[in-house]
Amino acid sequence: MRLVEFFVQDMLRYVIVLFPVYVVLRLFYLGIRRKVPAWSHEMLFATCAAYGIALVSQTLLPRSFYGIGDLEMYLETITSGYRSFNLIPMNTVWAYLFTQNDRVSDWGSVAFLNLTANVALFVPLGLLAPLASERLRRFRSVLIFGVKASLAIEVSQFLIGRSADIDDVILNVVGVGIGYGAWALIQRMRGASVRVGVAEANQDSADL
């Protein structure tokens, strides 16, 4: 649990610092375009922006709690050209589940966090994408979008000297699928409630 709190706090630090930048830029854009904002749309855009900041903070940016020495090490990793990659599907997942790393004191928790975080980080993408775009309201379209987003992150990580892993893409897409499933379930429940409301209204009219 402490590891989870550790990374959640890190995400929140980035969101708190960078989200106001989005707000200022968005207000500037609306002012230039002389647009009257639709608040439901603005809330959706703001949610997407906050999620984007949180996602990038955990995949491409250095930890916000880095000290000077740690930040120098992060920059040295980028400039040194050291990088690793895995193109064998399920190789890393298997290693996390069925091997032990004696150099890490609580390897089980670290492995569990890495696997679940790669899924959980992309659940909001699967939920928000169909809300933000009608073109992403089909399961196949959302999965393709998720693959593209995950690949973009993995390639970027590789280019800055961090690791790139096909298993991360697989887990990310699983998260997208879960998020889309949540959206589809919500839509079905809303549709059912609307049908019930219409039926009740028709019954009331018939009674009159």
Rounded average pLDDT: 84
Report the major sheet.
2 strands, parallel
Tally of alpha and pi helices:
8
Strand order of the largest sheet: 1-2
Domains counted in the coordinates: how many? 1
Unreliable parts: 65-71, 196-201
Summarize the helices and strands and which ones pair or pack.
Blueprint: H1 2-33, H2 39-59, H3 68-80, E1 85-86, H4 91-98, H5 107-120, H6 123-132, H7 139-159, E2 164-165, H8 166-207
Parallel strand pairs: 1-2
Helix pairs in contact: 1-2, 2-6, 5-8, 6-8, 7-8
Please tell me about this protein's structure.
The protein has 208 residues and is mainly alpha-helical. It has one domain. Helices cover 77% and strands 2% of the residues. The chain is built from eight helices and two strands. It has helices at residues 2-33, 39-59, 68-80, 91-98, 107-120, 123-132, 139-159, 166-207, and strands spanning 85-86, 164-165. It has a two-stranded parallel sheet with strand order 1-2. Helix 5 packs across helix 8. It is globular and about 60 Å long.
Q: What descriptive keywords fit this protein?
A:
mainly alpha; 77% helix; 208 residues; two-stranded parallel sheet
Could you give a short description of this structure?
The chain has eight helices and two strands, in the order H-H-H-E-H-H-H-H-E-H. It is mainly alpha-helical and 208 residues long. Helix 1 (2-33) crosses helix 2 (39-59), helix 2 packs antiparallel against helix 6 and helix 7 packs antiparallel against helix 8.
